[in-house]
Amino acid sequence: MNEGKIFVVGIGPGGREHMTGAAIEAIGRSDAVIGYKTYIELIEDMLLDKEILGYGMKREVERCRAALELAEKGRTVALVSSGDCGVYGMAGIMLEIAAESGCESDIEIVPGVPAANSAAACLGAPLMHDYATISLSDLLTDWSAIEKRLDCAAQADFVICLYNPRSHGRREHIEKARNIIMKHRAEGTPVGIVRSAMREGQFATVTTLGEMLSHDIDMLTTVIIGNSKTYASELGIITPRGYKR
Amino acid sequence: MNEGKIFVVGIGPGGREHMTGAAIEAIGRSDAVIGYKTYIELIEDMLLDKEILGYGMKREVERCRAALELAEKGRTVALVSSGDCGVYGMAGIMLEIAAESGCESDIEIVPGVPAANSAAACLGAPLMHDYATISLSDLLTDWSAIEKRLDCAAQADFVICLYNPRSHGRREHIEKARNIIMKHRAEGTPVGIVRSAMREGQFATVTTLGEMLSHDIDMLTTVIIGNSKTYASELGIITPRGYKR
Q: Could you provide one GO biological process annotation from this protein's UniProt record (chains A, B) (predicted)?
């Protein structure tokens, strides 16, 4: 008999007020909470009566195995991810490993506000039309596939949201990405750069495709590049949908 | 003196437990709540002491003008959108109209869990890699631009999330979209169809690109089409990121 349960929980951008009730409840119901140390720290005060398993980066497989092991013992576990756990987060790898191992525990995915959307809210309304999210990390994806996505997204006039814009501290990824996009889009296209959206240390700035590389861009940053109709107003970046036609 | 305030609030998929604390607080602090009738109904019990302005579809500009008028009288207003208000929601049009009118009221965008992400959580983990969201509604966008986006997104192997898959009840949009995507992607590609994700009447099914048109698809449906590596498992649709390399 196995009544263990795994919640994979998106905790949103970090500020407690942007967590959903379901995420708070899933953590509250869990005996153990597993996650990347930095995210565990964001919710530490919720975990006083919990077993905490904090991990370093790149140890995603280990985290999932630990969750499975605990669940097999009948315990309830929350595996936490920042933003939405279903977007470059822990949901996929957890299901992959569970499916392979013939896991019989119940697994529930609890979505959260993704990083792209909390960053967008800090900037105005840049994601109001069709958009593409692209991670510039080539740890798990060939760089050529990333270049192809950048090129196609720019060509088709998607608003583009870049995750992991400065992978392993390498500056050339964001430079190459900017140059590919600029083949299809004007220098003056508004670009929003947001670091630590909706948590301590939030910083948001509006610049242009031509100027964006003169700003600090690091691993905690999300970059949103407007489409051909996006404009910067006093109230932030706006991608119009055309209601006024 | 004008101390009015407008919150543009994403209420998430509908189930109360998937609203963020900030969204609940914004509505709680508001004197008046404005929105599409169907969404107002989802949160009716939170609005007992509020002035309620419910509108029919396609009256977005009117809703924003009503919000501005109330704020100019010093009142606090919540303009609500389902999902994330920043994704095909009210944030953009509200900022557009406010910027034009030289509005001096404070406007705050409160993000929510977008429809794509709540649908994804019902299906497993389909959005785990780069994805594009495309609305098939050609009310405000030329169909040729939509076709170009479908083609480019399919070509570059994005996971594709379709909003408004059956615009004004016309079946041909989703058929055309499917056919464009199938030029670049195998018939057996997993497709998830979710209606009323995470609210009353939720229905989710997993099918394939080849078979998807034999399922009911309407305005309340979100369709998620996997990339070339997406697979269907017993635990749902999984788009792997490659951790196991």
A: cobalamin biosynthetic process
Q: Is the pLDDT of residue B16 over 60?
A: yes
A245 in a domain, yes or no?
no
Quote the CA–CA distance of A135 and B75 in Å, as a whole number: 42
A130 with A161, same domain?
yes
Residue A110: is its pLDDT beyond 70?
Answer: yes
- The secondary element (H helix, E strand) that includes residue B125 is strand B124-125
* Contact state of B117 with A114 under an 8 Å Cβ cutoff: yes
Whether A156 sits inside 8 A of B148 (CB atoms) is: yes
Q: Within a domain: residue B221?
A: yes
The interface predicted TM-score of the complex, written ipTM, equals 0.96
Same domain, yes or no, for B121 and B187?
Answer: yes
Q: Calculate what percentage of chain B has a pLDDT beyond 90.
A: 86
Pick the residue of B109, B155, B159, B224 with the most A CBs within 10 A to test the interface with A by mutation: B109
Domain termination residue (choose one: A113, A145, A177): A113
Interface size, chain A vs chain B, as Cβ–Cβ contacts under 8 Å: 237
**Helix A172-182 crosses helix A143-155 at what angle (to 10 degrees)?**
30
B185: alpha, beta or left? (left if phi > 0; alpha if psi -120 to 50):
beta
Domain assignment of residue A149, given as a range: 116-238
Q: For residue B127, which residues of chain A lie inside 8 Å, CB to CB?
A: 84, 86-87
| pLDDT, tens digit, 9 for 90 and up, residues B75-94 | 999 999 999 999 999 999 99
Instruction: List, for residues B161-218, the tens digit of each pLDDT value.
Output: 999 998 776 789 999 999 999 999 999 999 999 999 999 999 999 999 999 999 999 9
For A90, the closest chain B residue by CA position comes to: B128
> Do A133 and A229 fall into the same domain?
yes
Decide: helix, strand or coil at residue B46: helix
CA terminus-to-terminus distance, chain A: 62
Mark yes or no for CB contact A156/B149 under 8 Å: yes
* Closest Cβ–Cβ partner in A131, A133, A240 for B92: A240
Identity of the amino acid at B73: K
CA distance B230 to B237: 7
pLDDT tens digits for range B82-137 = 999 999 999 999 999 999 998 888 999 999 999 999 999 999 999 999 999 999 99
Query: What would the pLDDT profile of A172-216 be if each residue is shown by its tens digit?
Result: 999 999 999 999 999 999 999 999 999 999 999 999 999 999 999
Q: In the Cβ-directed half-sphere of B236, how many Cα atoms lie within 13 Å? A: 30
Predicted confidence band of residue A102 (pLDDT cuts 50, 70, 90): confident
**How many distinct structural domains can be found in chain A?**
2
User: Out of B125, B133, B146, whose CB is closest to A86?
Assistant: B125
Which one of B6, B19, B61, B87 makes the best mutation probe of the A interface by having the most chain A beta carbons within 10 Å?
Answer: B87
